[in-house]
């Protein structure tokens, strides 16, 4: 498709400049896309491994906790769980992966989580809680990876669209228009030459 | 300093309460959406959602995952493991790269 421009020298110069910029942008974006995909694949692989690990450990944790619920009376369990003393926080750091801001989480646990009467509770509760406590940093790592994967996927899609638009639409259009203008200008030059030749003939005769 | 939240069926997540994580036991879709709207406004950074709840409000999670600071992670619940998290990951890869290269390779 041709762009709607007047075929003159001014436009030709402008279009040539635009073509150079478009080509440079295309090259840069293509590099960005490739780098993003490379990083993405690496993250996805890690994510998959950690997810499997977390799910397995969580299931184990759940089953231990099930034992607790069956061994203790409901009221005691409610009492035990009512006032947690420990506090869990996360600190967020941002790292930049190819202009995508990806959060990094750091787990901060405050206070002791053994805050219940040891007489009324079973030993399984301690065990279950320790289990959950150990899984938590891993779960946060998973959260971090999932977020990064989702953000990167979005960015890859965007970049790919831009690369394609440049490659298949803008650059060919510019090239065609430049060709069209050059041909038009040549045609004008030729017709001017032939007109001059014709006038010369008439004068000489 | 940001907090951690957990949404899901009560029996699965209640154990995490003693570790100082905010627990939101839910069962209905409306409740979940209400809680999510609340969480977005407060200082939370990581949200864990059990599978059977996540499946109900999937679009909302996807949207928030992209547009907010919150990170959502789907975890299995106590009763069954549907591997929903892995399925989402798979879909995500397909969207980004075009084909599902990672998981296909391993099946061969």
UniProtKB/TrEMBL annotation, chain A:
GO terms for molecular function: ATP binding; proton-transporting ATP synthase activity, rotational mechanism; proton-transporting ATPase activity, rotational mechanism. NCBIfam families: V_ATPase_subD (TIGR00309). This is V-type ATP synthase subunit D. GO terms for biological process: proton motive force-driven plasma membrane ATP synthesis. The keyword rRNA-binding does not apply. The lineage of its organism: Bacteria, Pseudomonadati, Atribacterota, Candidatus Phoenicimicrobiia, Candidatus Pheonicimicrobiales. The gene is atpD. Produces ATP from ADP in the presence of a proton gradient across the membrane. Belongs to the V-ATPase D subunit family. Keywords: ATP synthesis, Hydrogen ion transport, Ion transport, Transport.
Automatic annotation (TrEMBL), chain B:
The keyword Mitochondrion does not apply. Keywords: Hydrolase, Ion transport, Transport. InterPro entries: ATPase_V1-cplx_f_g_su, ATPase_V1_fsu_sf. Gene3D superfamilies: ATPase, V1 complex, subunit F. One of its GO terms (molecular function) is hydrolase activity. SUPFAM superfamilies: AtpF-like. It comes from the Bacteria. The keyword Nucleotide-binding does not apply. Its EC number is 3.6.3.14. Belongs to the V-ATPase F subunit family. This is V-type ATP synthase subunit F. The lineage of its organism: Bacteria, Pseudomonadati, Atribacterota, Candidatus Phoenicimicrobiia, Candidatus Pheonicimicrobiales.
